[in-house]
Amino acid sequence: MQGMSERDYAAHSGLSRGGVQKARRNGRLVLFDDGSIDADGSDARRAEMTDPDQQRRSLSGDGLISGPGETSSYLKARTALTVYQAQERQLAIQKKKGTLVDRARAETLVFRLARQERDVWVTWPGRVAALMAAQISAEVERQTGASVTIETAILQRVREAHVRDQLDALADLRVSLG
């Protein structure tokens, strides 16, 4: 035997035996007439034919070598892009399911709802003052037998003052959406 066996060349080159067999099939090894492997010629041919990134990965074991000219920055960037795309798809799915809403739109809707609620409370004393004055007068007359007249305007002013105090206290509340 003039050269090395597959096992010997695998130990010499740092490849697995399967890697040596694959290199033989792909024509990256120089063989003697007896089928043994010419180590020097095969090393040179493999160096010419093998992608440098593949060589570095096979030497380092994981392909995460850092330095100028290495592909690790590309791999990291590609990984970051893939993660970003997955997150973007997940957000789109949540939005379609209705579990995710636009923050600005939600804040606008909460503000609009609070404004409508405030407007209802501001106008409430004027709407119910006359009815409440009549009910209170009727109840006092029923319990005491004396006729009492309650001024609607006074009752409305008192109620408006109390409602405004309550609304001022509520104005300090802030909705936090995140």
TrEMBL record:
Domain of life assignment: Bacteria
Note down the stretches annotated as region Disordered.
1-21, 33-71
Composition bias (Basic and acidic residues) maps to: 1-10, 42-56
Name of the protein: Terminase small subunit
